[in-house]
Design goal:
By secondary structure, the chain is mainly beta. The protein has a single domain, classed as Elongation Factor Tu (Ef-tu), domain 3. The protein is built from one helix and eight strands. A hairpin with a 2-residue loop joins strand 5 and strand 6. The longest helix is centred in the C-terminal third of the chain and has 17 residues. The radius of gyration is 15 Å and the shape is globular. The protein starts with 6 loop residues before the first strand and ends in an 11-residue tail after the last helix.
């Protein structure tokens, strides 16, 4: 596949900008949990989502192809003086298979590099 800029989309053709990603591994089961935080959603701006197909999945696309993940949870957090301003959106999902985890991490490395993000291990702070 050709080199492409890694994208994250809830709606086809509307790339989103992730603000933070938190990774955790369950010690007892080894299952990996991913929490992606978005400070805004392009799909909500100017009602973009009403013009595009919703796939019921979070699509992560890079030079290796597309990863489709069905979120376990999608939380919209509001705040501000009147409580009606979108503060952030939290999207969480589980990755159980090691090869899927490895593929996700390759995507995240490409996404982080393309968007000026860095990795910080909480245990090494």
């Amino acid at each position: 596949m050709s080199a492409s800029i890694p994208t994250i989309e809830f709606f086809e053709g509307i790339p989103e900008q992730v603000s933070d990603v938190r990774l955790r591994r369950e010690k007892s089961t080894g299952v990996q949990n991913v929490l992606m935080i978005f400070e805004q959603l392009e799909a909500l701006e100017r009602f973009n989502s009403f013009r595009q197909k919703f796939s019921k999945a979070l699509n992560l696309t890079d030079s290796e192809g597309k990863i489709s993940v069905e979120p376990d949870s999608l939380r919209f957090i509001y705040g501000g003086p009147e409580g009606n301003e979108l503060q952030r959106v939290e999207c969480s999902f589980v990755i159980e298979q090691q090869d899927h985890w490895d593929r996700f991490m390759r995507f995240m490395e490409r996404y982080a590099e393309a968007n000026g993000m860095g990795y910080q291990d909480k245990n090494q702070q």
